[in-house]
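Researcher: I'd like a candidate sequence for this fold, 178 residues long. If you have to choose between options at a position, lean toward the conservative one.
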């Protein structure tokens, strides 16, 4: 008889334990569903979209800084070294553009596709300008010759640089977030 009572007690205990676990599981799922409904993606103003917006604004700030850092006049001023050949200066300028771009590549997840395309096009345009000017220089040209050629191009044709257009587009998008 004792073994029957022990068996019944074990079954009751197992059923009670299973019921408690089922109740906890159902409660946890309800909490997850409630949490999913209140995520910032669904209700940004109500549930903390502010940190997300802050990250976006910071990304736009960094990308505006990037456009300034890879602007040809600023690159030339920052990287100028006397005694370099035109090829060495070309390499230094293009490598700096690439490094600046790669340093900020993660910002693309916070900005619009159009803004990121503008940044990428600007980077590509500056690299192309540097390479084009360098191809027209003689083999014995100096880094100063390359820098002078780049600056002359920008002075003669201010629209050759996308810097202002890209910066204005980024500023416009950032202001829409405010």
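Model: Candidate sequence:
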């Amino acid at each position: 008889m004792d073994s029957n009572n022990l068996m019944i007690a074990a079954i009751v205990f197992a059923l009670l334990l299973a019921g408690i676990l089922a109740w906890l599981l159902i409660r946890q799922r309800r909490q997850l569903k409630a949490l999913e409904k209140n995520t910032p993606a669904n209700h940004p103003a109500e549930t903390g979209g502010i940190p997300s917006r802050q990250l976006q604004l910071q990304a736009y700030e960094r990308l505006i800084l990037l456009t300034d850092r890879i602007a040809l006049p600023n690159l030339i001023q920052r990287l100028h070294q006397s005694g370099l050949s035109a090829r060495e200066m070309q390499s230094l300028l293009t490598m700096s553009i690439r490094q600046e771009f790669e340093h900020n590549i993660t910002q693309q997840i916070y900005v619009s596709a159009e803004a990121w395309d503008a940044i990428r096009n600007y980077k590509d345009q500056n690299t192309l300008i540097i390479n084009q000017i360098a191809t027209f220089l003689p083999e014995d040209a100096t880094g100063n010759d390359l820098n002078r050629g780049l600056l002359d191009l920008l002075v003669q044709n201010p629209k050759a640089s996308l810097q202002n257009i890209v910066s204005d587009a980024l500023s416009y998008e950032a202001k829409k977030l405010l």
